[in-house]
DNA sequence: CTGAAAGCGCTTACAG
DNA sequence: CTGAAAGCGCTTACAG
């Protein structure tokens, strides 16, 4: 590889002059500058980043650690992070942990060995120790979709509790009073928070009018699991008019089960999803869903950590919270009795 | 940040000894080694990567440039790249170009400024010049899902022409003789290759028995576009029994249109998708599709470029080609006349 | 087995 | 405006 010394020799100037041509072109005599630039161009010279970074004491690299990049939520998040980084001339190392906390801590070591300036992470449960040791090494941290739990770090999140509340309120307003909650394990913080939001909202409703909630837990939040769960539930008849789903795939699986049993959505049963995946709007029954601003979340997280890297002393840790939004499509409708009521009034 | 010099001072040894403790622990006296390791541990010391890389002349960083990380194909590809890199202790910088060749060339500059050792890229059309200049700078290249076009580079690809052939042969074997080809612009190389595969296979069939192909082109390969295109096509009646789709979303959109017109899939019309996305198996009508080994593609590409980085002189450029696979589910079936024929024989 | 020294490629005061 | 020199943090022969 050509070095700055080769360029200097070829251009007949000193080594410092070449460096100035690259970093402070305005202080060179125009003729000298042109001469040097031409040689750089001709040789295809690119300064050695390691040497530059060694001098500068920084490298404009950040790491992004996610549990599952195949999940559309994290894909969008990654896009947001990338675009924010690109705009600030930073670069992102992507680390996909496949939900394994062992792999997560290995990746943290890799990133620290790379001396990244900051790490954006949606940590697995119980990895606060590994994270604390990262911050001790002077690497800045921003937590995505998780509370900071006493760590010196910024965090960005979606208000999941509000998301749960949105879903329940929507069905409640449509007159639903018996609702299936079809979701995953409460070990998943997002699931727990949404359920908490649902319970809270429930308690604000006078007991006489309070919807009855039937909880069904899925091992894995997939369409096929949801299909089976609803098929099984329907064996004992149908004692509900609405379903709140943990994500859109669950909603699609549930709708398939209803259709197979000739139960019409939304005439007989309303179904609401979560995440508002790309496909939600093009489904057979376009899905009502809760949209999470994953891209914005990633963009904001990257901006936070980059601003911390650029201005460590002036930086104050903060928590940014985004609100999910209800997207109403065709999979939810007023209950029959509610429609009747509406006609009367 | 602590440096190797601080560690040496704290441990009461020379600077070279600390370095040896890190890089060649076996040559130190056990007592000295333990002493130094303890200090390293206590201080949370991490060697400066820039300095190491400057000495070593390499940094174990590769770049991955993709047009759209939201596309499940590229998401899976990225997972493969990441896992291969992780296994080889490399790290991946992710670059998402949003299909813009301007952004692509900016990213190439960024990556070259970072002095990555290699770049994996699915290039936009007409960027061979930018790529050539990258290789001139001594950065190794591997092309993903594109021919190398005279570049000094390895390449990995899926045999798209064979994929097209698989789809056509499947419908042909089921007795379909009038088939709609619902796909995107031939400017997209994959689309062009698949269509070429279809035409080739067509020509191998005796003219008397050769299926009639009706081509419909979509501006954008989305479910809603496909829905509209099929709705419009059906206005003039139904003169086909099968549909070959450019991707699974198109297939899902088409099926929705058929259902709305009370045309049953697969009894009246067979529909075959492409990509075998996660959701294909859980759709209302589980989709027959062509599966592309995206993860494997990424893994192989990363392995190729890493082996080139590790052994530049022994390396020989190569092209690795993967075969797509036909995944038969419930959206395709024999035509009615074919079923009759089967009964007779 | 340990320690002093050279050098990786660059940037930036500093003297001219 | 130009050029010689120091030093960023590390690794690795080399002498002891």
Automatic annotation (TrEMBL), chains A, B:
Protein known as: Unannotated protein
Keywords in alphabetical order: DNA-binding, Transcription, Transcription regulation
PROSITE patterns attached to this UniProt entry: HTH_LACI_1, HTH_LACI_2
Organism: freshwater metagenome
GO molecular function: DNA-binding transcription factor activity; transcription cis-regulatory region binding
Domain (HTH lacI-type) ranges: 2-56
Pfam families per record: LacI (PF00356), Peripla_BP_3 (PF13377)
InterPro entries (alphabetical): HTH_LacI, LacI/GalR-like_sensor, Lambda_DNA-bd_dom_sf, Peripla_BP_I
